[in-house]
Structure formats: C-alpha cells, structure tokens
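Hi R.,

As promised, here are both runs. First protein below:
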Amino acid sequence: MSGAAATRRLSPTLLVGLGILGLFALAALAAPVIAPYDPIYQEATARLQPPSFAHPFGTDNFGRDILSRIIFGARVDLQMAAIGVFFPFVIGTFIGALAGFFGGLVDAVLMRLIDIILAFPFLVLMLSIIAILGPGLSSFYIAMALVGWVSYARLIRAQILVLKTADYAVAAVSLGFSKPRVLFRHLLPNAVAGSVVFCMSDAVLVLLSGAAISYLGLGVQPPTAEWGIMVAEGQAFLSQAWWITLFPGLSIVVLAFGFSLIGDALGEMMGVHE
C-alpha cells in the first residue's frame, strides 16, 4: 500500500506540473539576477529586433528586451494567480460551509445570491466591477473575490450536505459539541479536498482572466512587464515582429498547462473527480 501511495505521489503528471510551476517561480524570484536587461529600459536603436544572441526573444517597438520582460512578468502573473485564487477560496469555503451546514433560510438566501451572480457572464461581471473601481491590480483582485467565490461555495456546500449526515458528525452533535466546532473542526477539513484540487484549475482561469483584463487595458498598467500587456502591445506589429506576442503568449499557455497538470494529479491522488 505504501508503495502504491508513493507512486501516486510521484506521478509523472505531478512532477511535470510542479517542474513547470517551479521554473516560473524560480525565474520570478531571481528576476533581478537572471534577467539580461532592465524590463522597462527603452533603447531606440534596438527597436523591433528579431531573436538574436544579444536578445534571445527579440525586442519590442520600444527597444525593450522581451526575455527580460517575460522574466519580470512572471512575478506579476504568478501573483495574480495566487491572490486571485486565495480570496475566492476563503470566501467561497466559508459561505458554502454555512449554507450546507445550517440549511433552511440561510441556505436559501445564500443560494439565491449565487444564482444572481451566475446569471451574469463571468468576464462581463468582472469587467463591470473593474470599470467601476478603475483599472489596476487591486481592482482585479477585488473583482475576482466578488465573483470567483461562487464555484467554491457550491463545491463546499455539496460536500457539507453529505458529510453532516455521516456517523462521526452525528456522534459529535450527540456528544454536545458546539455547531462551530462540528463545522470547522470535523466537517470542513474533510470537505475541502475537492476545493483544493479545484484551486489549480481555477488558477488557470484567473491567469487567463488576468491576461485578458490586461490586454483590454483594465489590469496591470504600462510600462509594468505583464504577459497580457505584452501580447496587446505586440498585436499591431504581428506581421513584422511576431516574437513580441509569441513568447509572452507561450508563457501564459505553458504556465496554465502546469497548473492544469498539478490539478489533474492532485485529483487522482485524492480521488476527486472534477
């Protein structure tokens, strides 16, 4: 049994996913050391240069080094993925746990709130909130927290509804344990596995949403290095300088693929089916 467990822990899918995420995290942490140039330094004589030994990923229309901007951009995009998942996870877990455990009026009110949010397309609702708050990362995080918690709440609620009828939960109530203790010490730790796995898939959605918001000019603001901004800036030069959009676009795809692999591997290990 221990050998099988070790095999699952060291599955190739998990190792590849962790390797991809680790490489990007390492690049982000060591960006000032490994980046060959300042990411916002503009060199007029080096505008739109194709990939070369001096600039492995080429330069953009301002003469900025694409590789350096991708390395520094990893800091922003990883931060967006982490914070954009953390707050929806916490909010959704708390609301879903309350709805599933107490039921009745509490459940009805919270579920109607979820229905209202789900009635609007995800990206449209996010854009509306950011438009009201103003462009920037803070607005993106607030929008994600206000919209993204719904999926976590539904997952946790469904698990709590099943677990609160389990023998150990009934026994805890019979022994006179308080409701908060039963919920947060006995039910929630056993209900959260599915949400932890979903976090990895949700990180992909947050990453792509962040890139889309930045592409539309409502997220990270220039001249900060961020992959979505880089794709947007290179769009006008796609026919003559394809490298401006290709490399940051590939970075988004590869990092999202890494998160997806980790989510799949964790789902197999925990027996969770998304």
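And here is the second one, sequence first, then its structure tokens:
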Amino acid sequence: MSTQEVETVSTSADKAKLAAAVLLVVGALVAYYALSKQGVYAQWGALLVLLAAAVGAFLTAEQGKALVAYGRESVREMRKVVWPTRKEATQMTGYVFAFVVVMALFLWLTDKTLEWVFYDLILGWKR
C-alpha cells in the first residue's frame, strides 16, 4: 500500500479570493435587506448578482477548482457502478423484509420465554 503525501499550498491570492467570496456573500445579504424599500426585483437582483460573483470568486481559487475536480471524479465513478436490475432489487428487498420478520418473531419468542422463566417459574408471580 503506497502512501502519498498531499501538500496543500495556499497562496495569498487564493486566500484573497476566498475572503472576497465571503465578503460578497455577506454583501449579498446586506444588500438584500438594505434594498427592501427599493422593491422585490432590486432585492433579488442584488442578491443573485452578488452570490454569483461570490461563486465565481470561489471557483477561481484553488479550493474551488479542487471542489469541481472532486465533483467530476464523483460523476465518473458513479458511471462505473453496476446498478441492480429491478428483479434483483425486488428480490433483495423481499429477503430483507423476510429477515426482519424472522428476527422480530425470534426476539418476541425469546422475550416471552424469558418472561415466563423469570416471572412464573423463578419468582412465582402469577398474572
């Protein structure tokens, strides 16, 4: 098993981009509430424009690029998955339900047996 060291280098430009993204999100919220007297379109317009700018700033940073790469790799891996057929899924669901019923009966029987042993035989309590 090989171990790879992952070194994350965060430049000051990336930190500035992330700070700008955070400030843009805060600015979007402030603008949304500050423009309440201007109307709904001004509120939502400012909110959406500033949030889009924040997303753009985040995606240009190294962390944003890594997030996009992770998403692409996840989609690529999902395409490799062999999904069960409808028949297989139905059969497995049936097996699970049957197992649950058998376990429920077993636990109920065990509980009633222990109740009978402790209360009726050992303690002599009659209900």
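A quick note on the second one: The chain has four helices and no strands. Let me know what you think.

Best,
J.
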